Amino acid sequence: MANSLRGEVLNLYKNLLYLGRDYPKGADYFKRRLKNVFLKNKDVKDPEKIRELIGRGKFVMKELEALYFLRKYRAMKQRYYSDTN
Length: 85
Fold this sequence. Notes:
Blueprint: H1 2-19, H2 27-40, H3 47-80
Helix pairs in contact: 1-3
């Protein structure tokens, strides 16, 4: 059971690291913050607490994706629709 959770945590870290490349404050800022959060929780042994933290990480992943989609939408809207009325 611990190995499957470890795999989930590593997969979550990789996915967040990948998503952090386009972070508005910069990839280095995101990478440092991500590493600090994961190191802060490295001693958690309770499987339920680990699952809770994984859920929180997945929520952050969805929020980042929404941020990026919104930014792309705004850029496309600005490019193709003019506000000249």
